[in-house]
């Protein structure tokens, strides 16, 4: 019995150590968002003290970084995510309910197509989808949720018909919020940028990259995600486990 | 009487097909069915826009197969997918085994390990690019300068992101293993490794299957992280003047063929996309067949 306690304590200590390593990358973002740009590359793992300390200037700079107000990309990300998840939840739950109840030929075909769409990688439809969305004027933050409804319907209906009710919300939420490629291809990115597009644009357009300001924006963009996770983690983890069991 | 009562609601629901199914069907056709069919068709065409599409048979596929950068990206992606699959699953399974032993702080550990999963791929890529360059700049090199740094860097990134997710699946599987089975075995004098290999692992086989295929398809479909961490760099220039991006995976290769400098390669890109689809869908079907078979056996 005593041996058991020792073993468990060792496990706890080892995992605690791994946990510290696990949060280091996030800590690195925090440290460097307060650091003067030139020191981010040379002194990545030092605390922002003395001449390296940039105070909140990276955050101030980040707000208008790349000649695009950061709050606009936050707003577009919120609009697209909320509208898309709202549409997906409302319409796919209705459809799933109908499929489960009626269960005729058309429903079987739709269900099969839903499952099929889950194994199709985005690259397969990327070009044609962006052209179709353009033609149908689904290229604004207020209409792109229809595209998300279409491309996300498969998974959501599959889950709902399988009576797994806990997954779609969190999963779809994180999917739309973090999605880069679909809005990048569909939206006019001079006008409409989501957070991932904005960050990619700043870093991707090489030349003079302000790493300090980029880290400030990255920090601002992951704070809401971490808060969301800490408040809903019970449901998120349950959802992942249930989804896996359903397969 | 009973029969009509059970039938009436179904009939009345049936009438409202358009109300219940209409919105999803319309969006599904716009967002998936039509682009998919058009995508298949265009892979046999020469086009820049879509209007000017001209049927040319299989020549796009021929060009896709003979494209050295595409073949390279297939090999690179396959190796990456397998290596990341093995490492992620071994680590996730180990952590899950420890966390299901009633140790102190297991809730906190679970929370921390899962956390990176919620950060988007682009952001992940830039976080790790900063970290790797912070280390490598001391040796005056960069993650963009050596293929092996790009490869292992992406592996580390994926481990950080995915171990927590797989761990959750394994924990669910491990918790379903009956305690009395393990207890009985230990009373019978089974050693810890015997219990692990004879009881625990066979009982969590379904979770192992799910995680393996999940890891494999995740590896094959990887895009955002690849784009943000190295963007395919470094390049090697071939004898015919074309460049191979040595850390470019399949999804990024297809993207670059579509939207790269060669504007007449859209047909080839679409053909690559179809091949990519067949590969990924094939893996999905394999998984389905495999899980079905196991279910029958049990």
Beta-strand portion of chain A reads under 5%
| Uncertain segments of chain A | none
Overall helicity of chain A: over 70%
Strand and helix order of chain A = HHHHHHHHHHH
Predict the CATH topology of chain B. Answer: MetI-like fold
Distance between the termini of chain B: 41 Å
pLDDT averaged over residues of chain A: 85
- Number of alpha- plus pi-helical segments of chain B: 13
Instruction: Round the Cα radius of gyration of chain A to an integer and report it.
Output: 22 Å
Structural class of chain A: mainly alpha
Provide the β-strand percentage band of chain B: under 5%
* Main β sheet profile of chain A: none
Number of strands of chain B: 4
Shape descriptor of chain A reads: flat
Features of the shown structure:
heterodimer; A: 247 residues; mainly alpha; MetI-like fold; 11 helices; B: 298 residues; two-stranded antiparallel ribbon; 13 helices; 4 strands; 73% helix; disordered N terminus
What is the structure about, briefly put?
Chain A is mainly α and 247 residues long. Chain A contains eleven helices and no strands. By secondary structure, chain B is mainly α.
In terms of topology, how is this protein built?
The complex is a heterodimer of chains A (247) and B (298).
Chain A: H1 2-33, H2 37-42, H3 57-63, H4 70-102, H5 105-118, H6 122-135, H7 144-161, H8 167-178, H9 181-186, H10 195-204, H11 211-246
Helix pairs in contact in A: 1-11, 3-11, 4-5, 4-7, 4-8, 5-7, 7-8, 8-11, 10-11
Chain B: H1 2-14, H2 17-42, E1 45-46, E2 54-55, H3 59-66, H4 68-99, H5 106-114, H6 121-136, H7 147-175, H8 179-187, H9 192-203, H10 205-221, H11 224-229, E3 235-237, E4 243-245, H12 250-259, H13 266-297
Antiparallel strand pairs in B: 1-2, 3-4
Molecular structure report:
With 247 residues, chain A is an all-alpha fold. Chain A has one domain: MetI-like fold (Orthogonal Bundle). Helices cover 76% and strands 0% of the residues of chain A. Chain A contains eleven helices and no strands. Chain A is flat and about 70 Å long. In chain A, 47% of the residues are buried. The model of chain A has no long low-confidence stretch (mean pLDDT 85). In chain B, strand 1 and strand 2 form a beta hairpin. The N terminus of chain B is likely disordered. Chain B has a two-stranded antiparallel sheet with strand order 1-2. A two-stranded antiparallel ribbon of chain B has the order 3-4. Chain B contains 13 helices and four strands. Helices cover 73% and strands 3% of the residues of chain B. By secondary structure, chain B is mainly alpha-helical. Chain B has a single domain, classed as Orthogonal Bundle (MetI-like fold). Chain B is globular, with a radius of gyration of 25 Å. Classes of the chains: A mainly alpha (247), B mainly alpha (298). The interface between A and B is large, with 94 and 91 residues.
């Amino acid at each position: 019995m005593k041996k058991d306690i020792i073993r468990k304590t060792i496990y706890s200590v080892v995992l605690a150590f791994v946990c510290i390593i696990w949060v280091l990358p996030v800590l690195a973002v925090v440290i460097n968002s307060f650091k003067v740009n030139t020191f981010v590359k040379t002194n990545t793992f030092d605390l922002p003290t003395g001449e390296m300390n940039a105070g909140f200037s990276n955050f101030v700079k980040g707000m208008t970084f790349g000649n695009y107000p950061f709050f606009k990309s936050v707003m577009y990300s919120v609009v697209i995510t909320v509208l898309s998840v709202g549409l997906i939840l409302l319409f796919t739950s209705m459809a799933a309910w109908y499929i489960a109840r009626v269960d005729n030929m058309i429903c079987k075909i739709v269900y099969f197509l839903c499952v099929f769409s889950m194994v199709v990688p985005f690259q397969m439809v990327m070009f044609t989808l962006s052209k179709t969305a353009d033609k149908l004027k689904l290229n604004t933050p207020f209409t792109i949720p229809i595209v998300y409804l279409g491309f996300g319907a498969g998974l959501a209906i599959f889950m709902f018909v399988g009576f797994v009710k806990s997954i779609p919300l969190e999963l779809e939420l994180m999917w739309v919020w973090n999605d880069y490629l679909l809005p990048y291809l569909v939206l006019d990115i001079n006008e409409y940028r989501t957070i991932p597009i904005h960050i990619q644009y700043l870093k991707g357009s090489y030349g003079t990259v302000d790493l300090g300001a980029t880290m400030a924006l990255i920090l601002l963009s992951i704070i809401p995600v971490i808060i969301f996770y800490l408040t809903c983690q019970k449901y998120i983890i349950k959802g992942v486990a249930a989804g896996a069991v359903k397969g | 009487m009973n029969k009509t009562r059970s039938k009436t609601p179904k009939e009345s629901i049936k009438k409202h097909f358009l109300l219940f199914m209409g919105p999803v069907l319309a969006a599904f056709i716009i967002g998936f069915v039509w682009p998919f069919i058009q995508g298949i068709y265009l892979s046999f065409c020469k086009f820049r826009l879509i209007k000017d599409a001209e049927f040319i048979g299989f020549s796009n596929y021929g060009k896709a197969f003979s494209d050295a950068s595409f073949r390279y990206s297939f090999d690179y992606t396959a190796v990456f997918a397998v290596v990341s699959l093995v490492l992620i699953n071994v680590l996730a399974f180990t952590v899950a085994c420890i966390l299901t032993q009633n140790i102190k702080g297991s809730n906190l550990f679970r929370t921390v390990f899962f956390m990176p999963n919620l950060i988007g791929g682009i952001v992940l890529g830039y976080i790790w690019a900063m970290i790797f360059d912070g280390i490598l700049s001391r040796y005056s090199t960069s993650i963009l300068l050596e293929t092996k740094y790009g490869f292992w860097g992406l592996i580390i990134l994926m481990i950080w992101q995915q171990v927590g997710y797989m761990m959750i699946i394994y924990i669910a599987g491990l918790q379903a293993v009956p305690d009395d089975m393990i207890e009985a075995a230990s009373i019978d004098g089974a050693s810890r490794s015997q219990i692990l290999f004879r009881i625990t692992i066979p009982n969590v086989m379904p979770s192992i299957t799910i995680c393996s295929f999940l890891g494999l398809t995740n590896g094959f479909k990887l895009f955002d992280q690849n784009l943000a961490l190295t963007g395919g760099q470094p390049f090697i220039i071939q004898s015919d003047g074309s460049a191979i991006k040595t850390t470019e995976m399949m999804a990024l290769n297809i993207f670059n063929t579509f939207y790269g400098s060669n504007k007449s390669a859209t047909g080839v890109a679409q053909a690559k996309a179809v091949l990519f689809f067949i590969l990924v869908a094939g893996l999905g079907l394999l998984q389905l067949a495999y899980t079905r078979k196991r279910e029958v056996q049990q």
